[in-house]
Amino acid sequence: MAKEELTPMQRNFNFQKVITVVGAILMLAKFLAYFMTNSVAILTDALESIVNVLAGIIGLFALYTSMRPADRSHPYGHGKVELISSSIEGTMICAAGVMIILESAERILRNDYTLRSLDIGILIVAAAAAVNFAMGYTAIRMGKSSRSMALEASGRHLCSDTYSSIGILLGLGIIYILDFAGYEAFWIDPLMALVFGAIIIYTGAKVVYRSFHGIMDAEDTEAIRQVTRCINHIRTPDVIDVHHVRVILYGASSHIDAHMVVPGSLSVEEADRIVRHFREHTMEMIGGNIDITFMAEPCRGQFCAYCRKEDCGNRNAEFVEDKRFCTDAVTNADPCPEDHDDE
Fold first, then answer.
1. Number of domains in the chain
2. Mean pLDDT to the nearest integer, 129-147
């Protein structure tokens, strides 16, 4: 019996489970390194790992919920929970950065620069950074390919954790080398933590911004461009114009609606046939979980210059050329700029 193939959303969910479990193990390892070394920079890594674990649990809930199909209460599905979870995760990243800065400032004010067993701490942090980067890079790729903002946010968080770990390792390496040479430079440790605390806050703020961008249904330029390419590829002579295209992304689901202008002399059946042709081929080209609504509307003699139908009783001007479709044209009723490349 052939094994049933997993959907992209199921694969995302399974990988998020791995991220959560591994994140918990790495968190324990980093706290062990902190207690061994008393390094506030390593504490920075450990605190961010707490956020990793909590964010992993939130991401699991979001991905599980987003897999539920549309129902009466949620006719567009449950995909937007991923945007909510990624905004929470971004907020938690910012909170971790603030905690790191406060701890570093306190160490500086107390003049507490005591460090020990740096060699073991460096090895633990280096191993954790390598694992984090591998998982983060994979999560970003899977999230982008399946349009899962929750998984992509988890990946970016893991990668930002890796980058801060690399900086921490460089700083600790310098301290270790100087100490080996007989120079005390332990004061670098809290200063380094301050810098990376600020970087972590910046990373979290970007995640929050992208999440709210999606929650507010801001225009996704790449999604519009992809739909425009489909329209140009499958258009027929009876499709005079396509405008007011709207694309809304709900996690891995896409909802597309648009107005399609056809000759006014077409029957309802003929217009419906054209609409179904467009919908079926667009779904085939884009793929994934997609819902499309094309609304046919008659020309009424307004687009004669772009219409090839010669026996139309409403014609009031000669055909000039097929209308060019680009992102500017399909999102409203304006023509493409002359210098705009065809999509």
1. 2
2. 86
